[in-house]
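Quick one: examine this chain and its backbone structure tokens and tell me how the chain folds. Here goes:
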Amino acid sequence: MRACFRGHAFSPHRHDTYAVGVTSAGVQAFDYRGSARYSLPGQVFVLHPDERHDGRSGDGRGFGYHIAYIDPALVRVAAAAKTLPFVPEPVSKDARLLRAIPRGRRPPDRAGRRAHDYLRSGRARRCA
């Protein structure tokens, strides 16, 4: 999914999935695990299932991103692990993560569907 926002983008919420994305424009700011985080163009962000976060422009000019919502069961199988993997830093420049982000998939969880519907409603600004 592709999204672009100006100012306040969304209120605190959680996803049932991993949210793995890449910032494509501007400065993306979000509160996550008790700290303000910032992601710049080309940086990857990973939000774990059921982790509360919000979103806003980090500099007032707006921001854009591509994101995929991935079922935790698929991550567990792909990692061949008994427990879900944990990424300690939510923002990264890891090129492997950047290449792994699928584009254009509709998010499967309720919060993701609300974001998708909001974007389709025309209330969010278009990505440049």
Summary: The radius of gyration is 14 Å.
